[in-house]
Amino acid sequence: MAVFPRTATADARRLVAARTVRGFADGLVSVTLASYLDGAGYSGLEIGAIVTATMAGSAALTLWIGLRGGASPKAMLLFGTALMGVTGLGFALLSGFWPLLVVGFIGTMNPSAGDVSLFLPLEQSLLSERVAPEERTALFARYSLGGNFAGALGSLAAALPGPLARALEVELASVQRGVFLLYGLTALAVLALYRPLRAPKPITAPGRRLERSRGTVLRLSALFSLDSFGGGFVVQSLLALWLFKRYDLSVEAAGTIFFVTGLLSGLSQLVSPWLAKRIGLVRTMVYTHLPANLALVAAAFMPNATLAVAFLLVRMALSQMDVPARQSYVMAVVPPEERAAAASVTNVPRSLAGAASPLLAGAMLGASTFGWPLVAGGALKVLYDLLLLGQFGSVHPAEEV
Q1: Distances in Å between the alpha carbon of 216 and those of 31, 194, 329, 332, 395?
Q2: pLDDT digit string (tens) for 228-274?
Q3: Would the pTM of this model clear 0.90, i.e. be above it?
Q4: What is the CATH number of domain 10-392?
Q5: Burial (Cβ within 10 Å: 0-12, 13-18, ≥19) of residue 278
């Protein structure tokens, strides 16, 4: 299998590489963040509030980008890398709850195993124009695969601060603050990948761009928001916190678990284009996502860590196969001139909906160590799967017809 589809351009390769570098940084901080805040004495509710702030800020930034008429996607990507650097410095230097909440809101910290940042809609719209339509899903699979594999390595690297702190005989928090500094420095590598991008067409306001596809995009946006609201209950930082509290797992063990889940989810995405060609994009999304969500609910009821982790592994082996299919489907069912607007309109509500639930999940974990966030998140995502199949199971893009 070729690393990239035959028609993918040099810019497409740069965008996939940038997603890969950011994926490593996201995986590293998503596990470190929960351990650092828990060790600093923050309650489950306070940790949930900071996670909510990071996701709400990403949604606000994405909305701002979508509403800026005439803004260059390349310029917005470069602006995002500057924010990434500031975010890392802020978490490394500040320790108070309110300062961290503010930095989390205005920055690019990603507490999720997936990408919920302002980079996502910009990169999606650019990628869709840099490959032939029949290879779009395959390119999105590589894009997601790079992020997942790198995120898995980042999660594994989150286990290093503990041994390093013991070897240097310093506090764990000091080493973990260094992790946030590394996150900020990663922005330099991302900047180097974005700078050679060819100047694309400017983004205009979604309200002026969505004409022929308005109804389809708004319906998809509502469904994706429901899925994201459910996913916000089980973002990686909060899953790590649940494992810490429920089963008393160490950061090293949690990092290893998320490394394996990242590998499984990444490998599964290579199957997505193959499956989509045979059963269609929507069925690929639903038939893989539904059993994954049932496994997530089952994990909450497991009596020991071994069984809980086993169900989480099953979940992650299936749950991300819908990502390249979903991204490709949105780009396929809208006209090319409306793709940037569609990416923004479908991702902003997703980010806003996903930002609402971590606070609730944090409160649940503060009140009980039982996996209520897993039950709530899984049930909402099952509902999304059924509604998606019912509303769009017969709506096929041109390449499927």
Answers
A1: 36, 31, 11, 11, 10
A2: 899 889 888 888 889 988 998 888 888 888 888 888 887 887 788 88
A3: no
A4: 1.20.1250.20
A5: exposed
